[in-house]
Amino acid sequence: MATRPGPLTEWPWQRLGNFKYVVMAPVVVHGARLVSAGGWGAIDLAFALILPSLLLRMIHNQIWISAARYQTARSKHRIVDRGIEFEQVDRERGWDDQIILNGLLFYVGYLLIPSARHLPAWRTDGAVATALLHAGPVEFLYYWFHRALHHHFLYSRYHSHHHSSIVTEPITSVIHPFAEHIVYYVLFAIPMLSTIYMGNASVLGFVVYIAYIDFMNNMGHCNFELVPKWMFRVFPPLKYLMYTPSFHSLHHTQFRTNYSLFMPFYDYIYSTMDKSSDQLYESSLKGTEETPDLVHLTHMTNLQSAYHLRIGFASIASKPSDSSMWYMWTLWPLAWLSMVFAWVYGSSAFVVERIKLKKLKMQTWAVPRYNFQYGLNWERESINDLIEKAILDADARGVKVLSLGLLNQAKQLNGGGELFRQKYPKLRVRLVDGSGLATAVVLKSIPQDAKQVFLHAGPSKIASATAFALCEKGVKVIMNPKKEYDMLESQNADSRASYLKLSGNQMPQIWLVDNIDDKEQKMAPQGTTFIPISQFPIKKIRKDCTYLSTPAMKIPETVQNIHACENWLPRKVMSAWRIAGILHALEGWTMHECGDAMIDSEKAWSAAIRHGFVPLNKA
């Protein structure tokens, strides 16, 4: 929102939320009436392309969003090396509003302008006229309108909304108040209405012109330089006819330069071109190689997680993955296609996120596999190969710490990472499974006055460490089944053996669980608090019980570029396993924390608090 919102700031359908597409109902009804009356042949090409062109624009924009987020996470050609926050993602959530407006305007134009009907598919002379009219009146009028928007009166009421994003993304290009978009569409209508008046308009001419606007808008705001230098060498005048991402980025950082729409020649004419434009282009194109200090290696979880990644759908990624949205079912075909594509062509981990904490540079890499694939015996070798490849890649690049997230550290898969430590004893990168901090978070989630807990967990480092720590404190740990009880009893010291008990008639109201089904949950007494000790959340089926989060902590405010949720966790919250890797790098710990090795839980907890991480579940 602008600093002092003016009239017509809000979009007319803003209060409809995700149901805003109902405003396109008249187009659908009109089309249905035409088909019912005269068959598909009764639909004019210009009318038939209104809705499909909107869908193609959305796909086009989404491709730019995903490509830009992927490139800014891994590429050395970033222009502005600053972070994006949740506030910007929320502000730019309505990037499709202008597409809806475009569809409505096309429909109104089709109804009100008889000569806009029954247009030919293509007219070359019309396309040439459109290009000339854009380069002339559209670019000229936009330049001066844009300069007017930077006058404090209009800037504070309208244009400051757009400039709230210093670090731009492709969709930043269309984030303007409703009133601004009305003026922009008046300008963009000049070539289209003129060609209709001259009689050389065409349907594809309109579609290509709008696609050109989208392409240039997205490219100019993508925050990585991609225009090759050879294009300007081959055709030197091109520098006056096409801007670059770095050229427009200076407008967002300097505010009073580089006002042009897509063609910078008006900035040259009126001496408003930023003097550092060429230098920034050269430096951004050359780039600077960056080696992260820390890599967190995760993977996809369920089918929907493909578009919940940061490089997927921005608005979806900014919410916990268990947030229910009614339109998610429409994306199932895309989810299946993504899974098949990743399974067939996913030959290495890929970068999905880049964040900073003080001077510590971190990246998140994702193994292109899903939860269900980790359970397939015949897939384990190939998954371990992918993990091994990521570890060796990180080691070769000089990464200091690699933390294993989710099932990448499964004991039955690779012994919690021990397989790679033994296979490569000279690894410089330290492997971290995060069990020490995860144990500490679990222990701190248990009420201090607790006298007994029920441990419902399979054999794991965290379950064992938690049980032993509780017994040491004099808290009775009740277990079931007998197999896990016997295993822990054999490892438990004699001094605390009396606190480890096999399940009896009386059940405690504090349950520590890693994987529990509905039937087992129903056995818990009323008022039970379920505390997960694994990385995966518990299915909540009891309204009379309390469910705590998986082991996690709130991150410090100094963490930069956090604008996506980590799986099912809330905003600005990280899993203990991921934080453990950060602590390993910050503290300079030299040991591997994998296999049976484990950082002292109190040591890990003290380091987390010292570095500004805040408990999520308070005892």
From TrEMBL:
What GO terms describe the biological role, i.e. biological process, of this protein? response to stress
- The domain of life for this entry's organism is Eukaryota
Keywords for the protein's UniProt record, in alphabetical order: Endoplasmic reticulum, Lyase, Membrane, NADP, Transmembrane, Transmembrane helix
Question: Residue ranges of the Fatty acid hydroxylase domain?
Answer: 136-272
Q: What is this protein called?
A: aldehyde oxygenase (deformylating)
Q: Which GO terms describe its molecular function?
A: aldehyde oxygenase (deformylating) activity
Q: Which residues cross the membrane?
A: 34-56, 99-116, 128-145, 182-212, 331-352
Q: Which reaction does it catalyse?
A: a long-chain fatty aldehyde + 2 NADPH + O2 + H(+) = a long-chain alkane + formate + 2 NADP(+) + H2O
* Bilayer topology: Multi-pass membrane protein
Example of a GO cellular component annotation carried by this entry:
endoplasmic reticulum membrane
- Cellular location of this protein? Endoplasmic reticulum membrane
**Similarity field:** Belongs to the sterol desaturase family.
Q: Where is the Very-long-chain aldehyde decarbonylase CER1-like C-terminal domain?
A: 453-615
Name the enzyme's class.
lyase
List its EC numbers. Answer: 4.1.99.5
